[in-house]
Amino acid sequence: MRNAALNRATRETDISVDLNLDGIGTAVIDTGIGFFDHMLTALAVHSGIDLSVTVDGDLEVDCHHTIEDTGIVIGMALGKALSDKSGICRYGTAFIPMDEALGFACLDISGRPFLVFDCDFSSPAIGEMDTQMVEEFFRALAFQAGITLHLRCEYGKNDHHKAEALFKAFAHALKQAVADNGGGVLSTKGIL
């Protein structure tokens, strides 16, 4: 089984993540931030990864620590579940429309973390989630999981739709990348 369960507690957040890469997309999410819960649920459902996330964060300050730290722990859990990365397709790409918005994700589970993020939001927040935290979440996840990740909103007007298109595009690209390739490590080096 390709799964991982992690807990990370700091003075700002206490986060538990349990994920199963070979799940059916079951989501049990409670971060205290409604829109972020919605996005993590979409991530689980569209990737087919069973994901349980419980967060007790310092929301009296703002949403930053809760969202960034959740990205850190999900990224750590992904890295642990992928182990030596043998037998995976490694790459994934997806375009996802969400009404008038079109999101794009392309990723490489390479062990070389990087994020290219290209999405302009017109509002400071979606519900209780600061729009700038979309990028921070994906940066934290990508760097902890060792993923090279390119995310772009091709176009769109509604910030909810733009963010959701990016989360779903990432989910579909991740689903491709973690799929079984029937072989060993997909690298000329022999390791990732």
From TrEMBL:
<protein>
    <recommendedName>
        <fullName>Imidazoleglycerol-phosphate dehydratase</fullName>
        <ecNumber>4.2.1.19</ecNumber>
    </recommendedName>
</protein>
<dbReference type="InterPro" id="IPR020565">
    <property type="entry name" value="ImidazoleglycerP_deHydtase_CS"/>
</dbReference>
<keyword id="KW-0456">Lyase</keyword>
<dbReference type="GO" id="GO:0004424">
    <property type="term" value="F:imidazoleglycerol-phosphate dehydratase activity"/>
</dbReference>
<dbReference type="GO" id="GO:0000105">
    <property type="term" value="P:L-histidine biosynthetic process"/>
</dbReference>
<dbReference type="GO" id="GO:0005737">
    <property type="term" value="C:cytoplasm"/>
</dbReference>
<dbReference type="InterPro" id="IPR038494">
    <property type="entry name" value="IGPD_sf"/>
</dbReference>
<dbReference type="Pfam" id="PF00475">
    <property type="entry name" value="IGPD"/>
</dbReference>
<dbReference type="InterPro" id="IPR020568">
    <property type="entry name" value="Ribosomal_Su5_D2-typ_SF"/>
</dbReference>
<keyword id="KW-0963">Cytoplasm</keyword>
<keyword id="KW-0028">Amino-acid biosynthesis</keyword>
<comment type="pathway">
    <text>Amino-acid biosynthesis; L-histidine biosynthesis; L-histidine from 5-phospho-alpha-D-ribose 1-diphosphate: step 6/9.</text>
</comment>
<dbReference type="InterPro" id="IPR000807">
    <property type="entry name" value="ImidazoleglycerolP_deHydtase"/>
</dbReference>
<keyword id="KW-0368">Histidine biosynthesis</keyword>
<comment type="similarity">
    <text>Belongs to the imidazoleglycerol-phosphate dehydratase family.</text>
</comment>
